[in-house]
Write a structure and sequence with these properties.
257 residues, 3-stranded parallel β-sheet, 11 strands, 7 helices
């Protein structure tokens, strides 16, 4: 692609199907660009490992992965609430992400559901894995089950165990019906609950609801999701001030509410 020189182009965002995105990101990193890679595949996936093995370690300081939900106000606030202890000890969490397919173009349907399509875990499930890890710590997989259409995984559920005894259930799937809520979070603690309802693609308004055993409640929203915009602002700020992209573990997502 014809792009300005890296010194005149602060960031290139790669929004391509997973089968093509990593190759484009590799070429851009070799040419010296800062890259935000959407649909990245999990950080410990074979796709990401192959990308990391092909570039110099320095180049990985110029790569960010598009886990925009980690930057969304609702999820940042939920993590902060968990850490304050106002719902007691977190015990069970249900994270879900559904992808309605009814309004897709033929091209989008082909790459997501066609013969060489990736798993729904690579399109949606990676965001749930990233959220569960970010909120509760690195997990161990207890069990998982997938639904396949031919060789393609179109739905999946995983049960994870986290440090401190938190158990999370991840649920992701393509939906053939009309658009509805795209998913969210249901979290049970010993003294209360946290719920996040995410809107549809056409109506992106989401809300957060907190209820405690004392009868207190708190609602944030409905508001438009702001994760992508916040992610871009933080990546650009990091490039300008430090000349690199901060690793996920170095960014304090719980602040800047």
């Amino acid at each position: 692609a014809r792009l300005p020189a890296p010194e005149h182009c602060p960031l290139v965002v790669v929004c391509l199907p997973p089968s093509a995105g990593s190759g484009v990101a590799f070429e851009l990193l070799k040419r010296g660009y800062f890259v935000l890679l959407e649909k990245p595949g999990a950080e410990n996936s074979s796709t990401f490992a192959a990308l990391a093995s092909q570039v110099d370690p320095e180049a990985l300081n110029r790569l960010a992965l598009g886990y925009q939900l980690l930057h969304d106000k609702r999820f940042r606030l939920a993590r902060r609430i968990i850490r304050t202890g106002c719902i007691g000890q977190a015990k069970r969490a249900y994270l879900r992400m559904y992808i309605p397919t009814s309004g897709w173009s033929l091209e989008r349907r082909e790459w997501a559901l066609g013969a060489n399509a990736p798993s729904v875990w690579l399109e949606a499930g990676v965001h749930l894995i990233a959220l569960a890890t970010w909120m509760f710590g690195r997990p161990q997989v207890i069990s998982s089950a997938n639904v396949r259409d031919g060789d393609h995984c179109v739905a999946g559920t995983a049960l994870l165990s986290h440090p401190g005894g938190v158990i999370t259930t991840l649920d992701t799937s393509y939906l053939a019906g009309v658009e509805s809520l795209r998913g969210g979070l249901d979290l049970q603690g010993t003294k209360g609950t946290v719920t996040i309802e995410r809107g549809s693609y056409r109506n992106k308004a989401s809300r957060l609801l907190v209820e405690t055993s004392t009868g207190a409640s708190f609602v944030s929203g409905p508001e438009d999701e702001d994760g992508t915009a916040t992610l871009l602002k933080r990546v650009n700020s990091s490039i300008r001030t430090q000349g690199r992209i901060l690793a996920q573990a170095e960014i304090d997502y719980s602040g800047a509410l």
